[in-house]
Amino acid sequence: MQLLDTTLREGEQTPGVSFSIEEKKEIARKLDEFGVDIIELGHPVVSGDIEKACRVISGGDLKAETMAHSRALKEDIDMASDIDVDWVGIFLGTSQLSLEHKLHIDRTGALEKIRESVSYAKDRDFKVRFTPEDATRTDPGYLEEAIVTATEAGADRISIADTVGTATPFSYGKLIEDVIRRIDIPVHTHCHNDYGMAVANSLSGFGSGAYLIDVTVNGLGERTGIAPLAPVVVALSRLYDVDNDWNLDMLPEISRTVEKASGLFNSETEPIVGEHAFAHKSGLHTKAVLENPETYEAIPPEIVQKHREIIIDKYTGKAAVKDRLTEMGVEPDEDQLREIVSRVKGSEAGGKTRFTDIDLLEIADDILDLDIKSRIPAQVEALISFSLNSSSYTTRATRKIASFEEVATVFELTGDKDIQAHLESSSVQQLNDLIEEFRNMDEVQTTETSLILKGYEEGEN
Ligand code: HCA
Ligand code: CU
Questions:
Q1: Where is pLDDT greater, at 312 or 92?
Q2: For 175-187, what is each residue's pLDDT tens digit?
């Protein structure tokens, strides 16, 4: 099977989104490295900068094939001819709504346009994908005429567009089956997400024999977008046992790149690439997960280079708190542990919804007779990674962060996170305050902190 990514075409049709050529190059390069088969670059006649981006990227050295989007018109195909793409993706609305209220032509006229445009593109040596737009709302008999016409005119692929996302997994799967029965060329899926069923519909189409699935990174696209890359490929790999060479570990990085370039950020609950995808909270869950992650994890975070996260808050039980503290070298006895947990649960009244390692250590310090200040040597260190808002300048934020005395080193990163800083401080309290201050910076979207307690062992100081 194959994947077509259309982040640069459908994705740029997302309200508010416009990628620069540099951003498009970076996105295409990463998708190529990830392993998509076809990259739809854009619809060149739409604007000069889209045409230029198509030209620049198709002239690069991608392994993936490239495609230009095109109406069923000679001028669009001529423009694509002028650009070195492998495919033209010709689309024409075939539903009665499209014919009457968009194209203002009748059924026969539409078939004529399909025949002419597909053969015109074939004469120019393109590989041709023909898409009956709004296929899922097209009269089935007429849809059959349209796809047969395109196939006879030389189309290499047919894409069944669920343009307004009204198909269900059952109806879409059935439609794909009917289409495959009628024609001999590979069939594509293109599923919009208006009812939230884009992934389910795409996979249903695949299950019914579709050869290729259209996706965008983060599910960008008109309105609610189309099927997002990450859950589609992880489901294909793990639930459908599809043999593949995809670099799944690149998914968070690709998602992040597109978040930044688009200015649209995923919800925390987004599958695979959302902040909470591998976070566990309730005491019952975390206890089980610490014993065996599979109890509450369908997908091992490692396959996408993510880490399991145990949230410490009022839902937390002893197991999670003990685990965190042990990792930091603190070993409370049963009574102390119970007391720490009860403070964590009790402090919800104070409005704290999440405890960092440092917060936890402070409570432990208070309850255990640790005297943490003497036990923790003169130095407490932390590594903190920052994700910035799309509108922020990394260099400026880096300079701001570097200006704090406690910041020993700071790096700009490429990939999932933007900046990493190494902090050294003489007290946990001071470190905590500093991290709070970073979190409140306008530029900062999220932070992730890990604490390093150097020479924690007694006497090692
Ligand atoms: C569009 C509509 C389209 C086309 C799909 C395709 C759809 O934005 O032009 O040509 O493969 O969803 O029908 O995206
Ligand atoms: Cu679409």
A1: 92
A2: 999 999 999 999 9
Looking at the chain, which residues constitute the CATH 3.20.20.70 domain(s)? 2-262
Cα-based distances in Å from 238 to 14, 294, 298, 301: 29, 14, 9, 13
Q: How is domain 380-451 classified at the architecture level of CATH?
A: 2-Layer Sandwich (3.30)
Go through 380-402 and write b for each residue having 16 or more CB atoms within 10 A of its CB, e for each that does not. bbbebbbbbbeebebeebbebbe
Tell me, in angstroms, the distance from the centre of ligand 2 to residue 29's CA.
Answer: 22
Residue with CA nearest ligand 1 atom 12: 163
In the chain, where does the domain assigned CATH 3.30.70.920 lie? 380-451
Q: Quickly name the fold that domain 2-262 has.
A: TIM Barrel (3.20.20)
Q: Which residues line ligand 1 (CB under 6 A)?
A: 10, 13, 69, 89, 91, 131, 133, 159, 161, 163, 190, 192, 222
pLDDT tens column, 234-249: 999 999 999 999 999 9
Atom of ligand 1 nearest to the CA of 129: 11
Ligand 1: which of 13, 190, 212 to mutate, most ligand atoms within 8 Å of CB? Answer: 190
